[in-house]
Amino acid sequence: MEKTDRIFVAGHRGLAGGAILGELQRAGYSNLLTRTSTELNLRDRGATRTFFEEERPRVVALAAAKVGGIQANNDHPVEFLLWNLQIQNNVIEAAADFGVEKLLFLGSSCIYPKFAPQPIPEDALLTGALEPTNEAYAIAKIAGIKLCQAYARQLGKRFISAMPTNLYGPGDNFDLASSHVLPALLRKVHEAKQRGEREVVVWGTGTPRREFLHVDDLACACRFLLEQHDDPALINVGCGEDVTIRELAETICEVVGFGGSLVFDATKPDGTPRKLMDSSRLRRLGWQPAISLRDGLRSTYEWFLRQPATIRET
Ligand code: GDP
User: Fold this and answer.
1) Which of 63, 74, 110, 209 could form a disulfide with 11, with the two C-beta atoms 3.0–4.6 Å apart?
2) pTM attached to this predicted model
3) What is the DSSP track for 14-59?
4) Atom of ligand 1 nearest to the CA of 204
5) Does 70 contact ligand 1 (Cβ within 6 A)?
6) Beta carbons within 10 angstroms of residue 194's beta carbon
């Protein structure tokens, strides 16, 4: 990849896309192309094709997606399946038709079977039933991987797929109904501390295990893959360690400085019991994460505190 290559970062207002854009800027890429969803609706095939025809990006980082936490996924399977299929089909097809030389598609660790071996190797894909709470999203992402692989196999396109584990960091969604666990707990614990409350409610039993990767680490991995990796086989991007939701909540209490107690609401779903990915393939290629969970939590909390109350409370 040349520093002057025209690179379209699809989804640059999102957590992953924003971090990828920043990473590419810092690395000296000077011809970066972005569109907000108001400027370009990627669910609109015609508009997407016109954009590619006119702008002719050479490289695409496809981070645009309908994303959300366990409750949003569970409550809105139509949007998670349909919108994601539309976005990725339109972008991948247009990329192929209008001369894009390299495309990186971002999937998710939820593509793997609910009871996959842990840590989950890439070849666990399609070996068992999915976790029902995020099946719609997972099916869409699996279709995206398969479409990239189909273009690679049939037409020789350099379209690759990376599977990030649970991401967090500055720019995350802190809305309690639609967010993932980490920003939700950061906000809940912060608000409990501010209001002088003595308890924070954590959904589920606290026993599920999750792996958390700082989004700047993901962005660094994405640049690495764009620059150095052409294998269409999917590749995991994780930090290699997981924690229970209880441990996560306890660490967040320490970072925020909240001395109250945790209450577990078992009427809320736990989701998949564990999803630690095996990221040894990426490690062998020469990439490794740099940000520990505690450091990442600290800097994310500092970022959260700097946001105007209106953003924090959306
Ligand atoms: P998942 O990784 O797809 O299951 O998505 P989430 O990040 O939304 O949830 C991960 C785990 O955290 C699940 O077991 C949730 O029940 C649990 N959890 C605990 N408290 C919360 C919360 O306030 N919000 C969310 N989204 N999840 C929570």
Assistant:
1) 63
2) 0.95
3) SHHHHHHHHHHHHTT---EE---TTT--TT-HHHHHHHHHHH--SE
4) 16
5) yes
6) 10
Q: Hey, what are 308's tokens?
A: 């105007």
- Is the minimum distance from the CB of 138 to ligand 1 under 6 angstroms? no
Per domain, the residue ranges of the chain are 7-171+213-240+276-291
d(C-alpha 218, C-alpha 167), whole Å: 8
CA 270 – ligand 1 centroid, Å: 7
Answer CATH for 7-171+213-240+276-291 from 3.10.520.10, 3.30.1360.120, 3.30.70.20, 3.40.50.720: 3.40.50.720
Regions of the chain where pLDDT drops below 70: 310-314
- The per-residue pLDDT for range 182-207, each reduced to its tens digit, is 999 999 999 999 999 999 999 999 99
Q: Is the C-beta atom of 134 inside 6 A of ligand 1?
A: yes
CB 69 within 8 A of CB 56: no
180 lines ligand 1 (CB under 6 A): yes
Q: Tell me: the pLDDT tens digits for 302-314?
A: 999 998 875 555 4
Distance (Å) from CA 245 to ligand 1 centroid:
8
Residue 69, ligand 1, Cβ within 6 A: yes
Q: How far is the CA of 179 from the centre of ligand 1 (A)?
A: 8
Q: Which tokens go with 149? A: 């692989």
The residues annotated as belonging to the active site are 137
Instruction: List the structure tokens of 70.
Output: 């366990």
**Paired tokens of 61:** 């980082």
